[in-house]
Amino acid sequence: MSRTPRSGAARIGNRVAAGDMDRVADDALKTLVHNHGYHTGMWEAVLGQLRDLPAERRRELAHAIADRFPAVGDNPHDRGNALALYAMAARGLDEDPLAAERHRTLADLGRRHTLWIRARIDLVVEAELTAGRSLPPEFVATLRRTAQDAYCYKETSALAKQLTEPALNVGEAWAEQALRDATAPDWQALLVHAATATTAKPTARWEKRARVLVGALGAERVRESVVSWFTLVGRPRTLPLELDQYEGHLNDAYDPFNAVALRGLAWTLSLLPPHPGTARALGALVETSLKKVAGLGPRNPKVANAGVVSLARIEGEPALAELARLATRVTYKGTAKLIDTALAERAAALGLSREEIEELAVPAYGLTGVGSAEHRLGEATALLEVEGTRARLTWRNAAGKAVKSVPAAVRRDHAEELKELKAAVKDIDKMLSAQSERLDRQFLARRTWAYGTWRERYLDHPLVGTLARRLLWTVDGTPAGYADEALRTLDGTSVTAGEEVRLWHPAGQEPADVLAWRDWLERHAITQPFKQAHREVYLLTDAERATGTYSNRFAAHVLRQHQFQSLAAIRGWRSQLRLAVDDEASPATRELPEWGLRAEYWIHGDGGDDFTGITESGSFLRLRTDQVRFYPIDAPENSAHCCGGEYSMWLRDGEDPVEPLPLSEIPPLVLSEVLRDVDLFVGVASVGNDPTWQDGGPDGRYREYWTSYGFGELNQSAETRRALLERLIPRLAIADRCAVEGRFLHVKGERHTYKIHLGSGNILMTPNDQYLCIVPKSGTATAQGTGYLPFEGDRTLAVILSKAMLLADDLKITDPTILSQL
């Protein structure tokens, strides 16, 4: 095999010496084209022999290749290889019989993500340029993407660097809009400079040149244009690429050449005067760049990191607020670390703690009262109000009468103010979600506040106050909630002063007191932003006392891995994606520095006996779960093989093993919150709550698990749901058709009686407990007509209620998939 290239080149050399150009063409095409160029060592040897042929011999060879070109086929890579041979033979000759084929092939190659990296496409390009034709912009994009491969021929890489037009690769909506907008030379120079942003952070030299270019264009013009381009980032490609089975994800990824330019444009924004729109655009760029692509992972972490770097360089409240918001949303490890570093540096510069900087970073977004503001625009008035976790913009005319739409005079005379108001509504929605997540994680942070500071940053803050006033707090140990314009105790006594404030938690409270606070919330119609008064409390069980140092409460479950990993990251856990490789990984881990503890949830990949549960990229689709354990925070980490097996402690430098801590020694609040997290992972990510898995998934291997989970005993969160439904059902319009019995909500329809499981939301119907598959729509489910709910965020509760509403009036069901089962 190792002699093949040499013997092939020697054979062609013999044909050349004999002057038989037809046989030279046959052998060269067979060697370098029909084998798709895989014998890459041949290229230079063969081309070297052809390069020095007399012009007449090369003319004969060029015509011989042209005659045989139709037999090459339609594969653009093969045609490109054949045209490279032809270009070498036809160099400097007047005849060009394959000119049309060359242009067509380059256009076709523009539909590929990259070229065969060891092809001499530069010869084809040289011939096209010599013929006086410009290169198709789609091909230029392909060539640039190819040149980024380290194994690409140096001639091809050098050629790509010489092609400065177009300044960006076509095929992406944002880049094509930028090319349409930036036609002036100064704009072109800025785009070209942006595409040189190849370092992790802007260098002094890069920044100096960028400032000169911005100065020539004007800072405001640059900001408006770049921000408008960023709104198009992540849109579907305008030119979908023709990909093979191993490239299927690349149409959803960023063009790698344009991604470098995105980094440069993000850095450029940090050089401009601070503006709320700039921070908003950079934050959106970070999130868009971290969206997952199947088979790839995050779209482009480098672009996301550039957005964070830019936000960290911008002074002012909007950029800081965006960093604080991203800190609650970003789970990708590298980018999250950059955000943490940026916030820590900002906090150190101001002499504050990380927690304080996050609190101070929340802007008011123009709200003048807690959750409300009025803006006068001409004779009309805009009312901005926060309702729950969403902002709403309404209008009144000059007479003070409510109108349904934006007055025409406002659209005409106050377009910029209207634009900012609408942007503020979107910003408020994002920040409310982020702050709700942050507050929900404060239970384990052991955070306390001085009363005055707490009122300023929480209870009376224009935005955070809309959340804080729906939560319960303790002031010097006395529980209180906000109602009737004041902070009050259970008996209605007003609390106006104190020393120390904490977030109230039901762990350790008397059951009667917890129930009393639930009644208090219901009496005042307060919907909490997340479960607090109704929060599940996980007490130590007899089984856990028997095992001593570990809990099996959430063992032996089958979870969708990628959903689990996302949830774990959101809740502050560190977990490594399990790949089907010969390697080890640590368990899912949550560090609790305030308590000096580390919680572990043991997991391993489950690919099935036939390994069908593995993606093309090698990651497991599903996980199997095991124990929950606690260790001192500085104890050596455990690890196990990704595909399964025993966990063992990784000891270095003579370290001694550290035993897990007895569960009885774990503070009750810590135990409860950690087990609640794990319950959430199982409740959301388990294949048992997927209504389409009644057949047990691949080969039916999970049928027994799906049945036991989907209709089995209720976990703690489902028990909480059960207690709530018992109070809620009597107030519903369908109350006479519903009853909570055991593990199910029974719903009497006209066709059947239905049993909705309170843990999974799966449905059985009469007769014979026949399974009914109803797949809820993706996204957050909402149930209309349920009236007051005491908390937000329980999607399974919303699914159960929406199914109950549907099935109670089953004669009106029109969905053919459901009707076929009834």
How would you summarize this macromolecular structure in one to three sentences?
The chain has about 800 residues and is an alpha+beta fold. The protein has six domains: about 5-160, no CATH class; about 175-350, no CATH class; about 370-435, no CATH class; about 440-525, no CATH class; about 540-685, no CATH class; about 715-820, no CATH class. The chain is about 45% helix and about 15% strand.
Shape: globular
Low-confidence stretches: 1-6
What percentage of residues falls in helices of 4 or more residues?
A: 40-55%
The spatial strand order of the largest sheet comes to 7-11-8-9-10
Q: Give Rg in angstroms.
A: 33 Å
Instruction: Supply the number of structural domains.
Output: 6
Whole-number average pLDDT? Answer: 86
Could you give the count of β-strands?
24
List the helices and strands and how they pair.
Elements: H1 4-18, H2 21-32, H3 42-51, H4 55-68, H5 76-90, H6 99-109, H7 121-130, H8 137-147, H9 154-162, H10 173-181, H11 185-194, H12 204-217, H13 219-230, H14 256-269, H15 276-289, E1 292-293, E2 297-298, H16 301-313, H17 317-329, H18 333-350, H19 354-360, E3 372-377, E4 380-387, E5 390-396, E6 402-403, H20 408-413, H21 415-440, E7 449-450, H22 451-459, H23 465-468, E8 472-475, E9 478-483, E10 486-488, E11 500-503, H24 511-523, H25 542-547, E12 550-551, E13 558-560, H26 561-570, E14 584-585, E15 588-592, E16 597-606, E17 622-632, E18 638-641, E19 648-649, H27 668-685, H28 703-711, H29 716-728, E20 738-741, E21 744-748, E22 753-757, E23 763-765, E24 770-772, H30 795-808, H31 816-819
Antiparallel strand pairs: 1-2, 3-4, 4-5, 5-6, 7-11, 8-9, 8-11, 9-10, 12-17, 13-17, 14-18, 15-16, 16-17, 18-19, 20-21, 21-22, 22-23, 23-24
